[in-house]
Amino acid sequence: MKKIAIIGAGPAGLTAAYELSKRNYQVDIFETQDGVGGMSRTITLWDCLVDIGPHRFFSSNRQINKLWLEIAGDDYRMINRQTRIFYKNRFFQYPLKPFNAFKNLGPYETLRCIISYGQQKISPVALNGDFESWVTRRFGKRLFFIFFKNYSEKLWGIKCTELDADFANQRIKKLSLYEAIKNGFSGDSAQHKTLVDQFAYPSGGTGMIYERMADHVRKRDGQIFLKTKVKRVIVKDGIAGGVELEDGTVKNYDAIISTMPLTNLANTIDKVPSAIKESLAKLKFRNTIVVYLLVDGEGLFTDQWLYVHSPELLVGRITNFRNWLPDLYGDSKKTILALELWCNSDDEIWNYPDEKLIEIATSDLKKTGLAGPKAVNEGFVYRVPRCYPVYSKGYMEALLPVQEYLSGIENLYPIGRYGSFKYNNQDHSILMGMLAARKIDGEQDIDLWEINTDYESYQESTIITETGLKNNH
Ligand SMILES: Cc1cc2nc3c(=O)[nH]c(=O)nc-3n(C[C@H](O)[C@H](O)[C@H](O)COP(=O)(O)OP(=O)(O)OC[C@H]3O[C@@H](n4cnc5c(N)ncnc54)[C@H](O)[C@@H]3O)c2cc1C
Q1: What is the mean pLDDT of the chain?
Q2: What phi and psi values does residue 336 have, to the nearest 5 degrees?
Q3: Ligand 1 centroid – CA 218 distance (Å)
Q4: C-alpha distances in angstroms, 450 versus 229, 321, 400?
Q5: Using a 6 Å cutoff on CB, does residue 40 contact ligand 1?
Q6: What is the Cα–Cα distance from 394 to 292, expressed in whole angstroms?
């Protein structure tokens, strides 16, 4: 029986473990944290279940949905999505609806938007490979400024001219002003529900899926070592053969699947060439600080989450867990909100004490007016390091040599969000785990680096029906 080590018990690592243990491999999972699920875990807070910020599951890929349903069974609900942008004390529906947007902007600003959109049709800006020129050319300077600039710069911590157009390709390629206006005319009732309108949510929170996967793995004699950090992967003569844990223990394996940050993985390999080290130094991650606030009252606002574009606020997104599965709240008359702050590891704010972060979030919440005079009872801080791989302009030039170097190491499979430096959602990481297992088993030989680069097929416009994922093609 072949023994496989898996670093990380997030969606990618657990899916790989689940698939491999089904095929009778012996799997050992090493996880730094005290629970499974990675960034997609669910925690208990003030007697309620909450996720690490908003986590909606959606996929137009049949095999991913099939696996998800295999685990969830009937224990999920389809949730009608409502998310809006909070900007200049107004709410803009998101995805943007032209009439709602123009009503909120007023006639003068609307005219400016139309003129600047027209200018791009007559004399478009040159595409420079950056996010700003990509979006401006498609929507016009004014719409770029209002709806893309502030939020993107808050999230990524760099100017939109320094952000790679790949980010736009991946996340907003399908957005077209013409389509949006056309849909605006046809009215909501005439439309089919799509992945934009509804999403599946497990009745025990997002992390339920991964806790169940972990249970399946344990039942098939797989082992999950929590609070156990892998220091490095041991590579000898170009073959990965084991892992060294932080306490110095060395364990040998036939193959290693790594979902730990790509930079940490590659930097700690013995004799990594200096050119690769130089490339690795150029790959940056962004962190999230999630501040949970327990607020009096039930109907603060109706969205599952709000995007906070206002540049004067530090907070970038606010999740209202009451609007996901209200059942998870029991009789409580309070609401848990999660406010996200984004930063780099060397920013002062990353090391602020919890009380100071709770103060910042509480003050920002007050400024939005969303909670009115309602009291904030308590706060809790959860830090998520390296959760956003930064697609800075030209990042692929640094990433490609690293991919090539790691591909040259036999029996090593780097996958996952920070594990492969891809801006993955859960579904991408699930797919990576599934395909890594098939590759190890010799069932399907695919280039794992190619997953989540086919932006064409990543569409939220897929139609879903009342039965949700089951009839999804
Ligand atoms: C705020 C936020 C909101 C999000 N919203 C959504 C959403 O709405 N929909 C969606 O689908 N996705 C969403 N995501 C993305 C989703 O969380 C990730 O895509 C998914 O969890 C990635 O899975 P993964 O297994 O690749 O990585 P992770 O979930 O990060 O798992 C990696 C695991 O490896 C462990 N690890 C790291 N280093 C080591 C080491 N040296 N030794 C041992 N263990 C190690 C980590 O502790 C972690 O548990 C969101 C993410 C964030 C941060």
Answers
A1: 90
A2: -100, 125
A3: 21
A4: 28, 34, 12
A5: yes
A6: 35
Question: Candidates 34, 39, 170, 426: which one to mutate for ligand 1, based on the most atoms within 8 Å of Cβ?
Answer: 39
Ligand 1 center–CA 140 separation, angstroms: 34
Regarding the beta carbon of 29 and ligand 1, being less than 6 Å apart is answered no
CA separation (Å) from 108 to 113, 114, 121, 145, 149?
9, 10, 20, 15, 20
Cis peptide bond prior to 95, omega within 30° of 0: yes
pLDDT in tens, 422-464: 999 999 999 999 999 999 999 988 899 988 765 544 455 555 5
The string of pLDDT tens digits covering residues 334-382 is 999 999 999 999 999 999 999 999 999 999 999 999 987 778 999 999 9
Could you tell which of 42, 55, 383 is best to mutate to test the pocket of ligand 1, judged by most ligand atoms within 8 Å of the CB?
55
Specify the residue with its C-alpha closest to ligand 1, atom 14.
425
Could you tell me the two tokens for 400? 């490609």
Strand order in the sheet with 3-7: 223-225, 26-30, 3-7, 255-258, 412-414
Q: How many angstroms separate the CA atoms of 196 and 95, rounded?
A: 8
Domains of the chain in start order, with CATH, are 3-38+60-68+205-280+392-451 (3.50.50.60), 96-187 (no CATH)
What tokens were used for 421? Answer: 């430096």
Test site for ligand 1: of 199, 211, 343, 426, most ligand atoms within 8 A of the Cβ = 426
Instruction: Tell me if 386 CB under 6 Å of ligand 1.
Output: no
Distance 439 CA to ligand 1 centre (A): 22
pLDDT at 235: 98
Q: Is 259 close to ligand 1, i.e. is its CB under 6 Å away?
A: yes
Q: How far apart are CA 381 and CA 290, in angstroms?
A: 6
Atom of ligand 1 nearest to the CA of 317: 1
